[in-house]
């Protein structure tokens, strides 16, 4: 896996240098981490809404009895590949209590911020083989994504002109009209 990620980074660097864009779909947090930007609360929301909502509900829980009835959580997080990961030593054995709910929330967010650090570092290593690190650091996350992937847009007018309808559907069919309204 390590060699593949370094290779991916080299390909990303080559795409930047040659303007031959790659069709990659990476989370905004990944692009930001490649260039050393801090990951924001919104970036985490985009990756793990469920955990984020749970920690928000925990920290906003009004009292101990409601918290105890609602939450049965240990000091663990679930990785992207669904493995349970302790956030503290023996975290799988330590119950999150009302008094430690803010600590758990902070640890889980920190875990999310750094979950892909090794992979991101390997991608960056490959990129700096092709694009010098000082040049790479001139980009922010969205700019890097644009440099590697190009502009992510679809020409709706072009798509509409070349769409072929079949069966009972035609350009004037109500469902098709709704479809194009939503797209525009």
Automatic annotation (TrEMBL):
HECT domain residues:
1-184
GO molecular function annotations of the record: ubiquitin-protein transferase activity
Keywords annotated in UniProt:
Ubl conjugation pathway
Entry's InterPro entries?
Answer: HECT_dom, Hect_E3_ubiquitin_ligase, HECTD3
Asked if Nucleotide-binding is a keyword of the record, the answer is: no
Q: Pfam families of this UniProt entry?
A: HECT
User: Which residues fall in a coiled-coil region?
Assistant: none
Instruction: Fetch the PANTHER family from UniProt.
Output: E3 UBIQUITIN-PROTEIN LIGASE HECTD3
What is this protein called in UniProt? Answer: HECT domain-containing protein
According to its UniProt entry, this protein's organism is Lotharella oceanica
């Amino acid at each position: 896996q390590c060699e593949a990620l370094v290779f991916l980074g080299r390909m990303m660097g080559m795409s930047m240098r040659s303007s031959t864009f790659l069709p990659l779909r990476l989370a905004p947090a990944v692009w930001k981490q490649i260039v050393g930007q801090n990951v924001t609360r919104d970036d985490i929301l985009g990756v793990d809404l469920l955990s984020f909502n749970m920690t928000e509900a925990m920290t906003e829980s009004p009292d101990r009895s409601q918290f105890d009835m609602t939450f049965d959580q240990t000091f663990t997080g679930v990785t992207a590949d669904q493995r349970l990961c302790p956030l503290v030593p023996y975290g799988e054995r330590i119950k999150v209590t009302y008094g430690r709910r803010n600590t758990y929330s902070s640890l889980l967010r920190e875990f999310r911020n750094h979950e892909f650090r090794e992979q991101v570092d390997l991608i960056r290593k490959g990129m700096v083989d092709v694009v010098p690190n000082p040049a790479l650091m001139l980009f922010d996350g969205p700019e890097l994504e644009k440099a590697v992937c190009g502009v992510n847009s679809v020409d709706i007018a072009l798509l509409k002109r070349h769409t072929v309808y079949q069966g009972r559907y035609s350009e004037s069919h109500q469902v098709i009209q709704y479809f194009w309204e939503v797209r525009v």
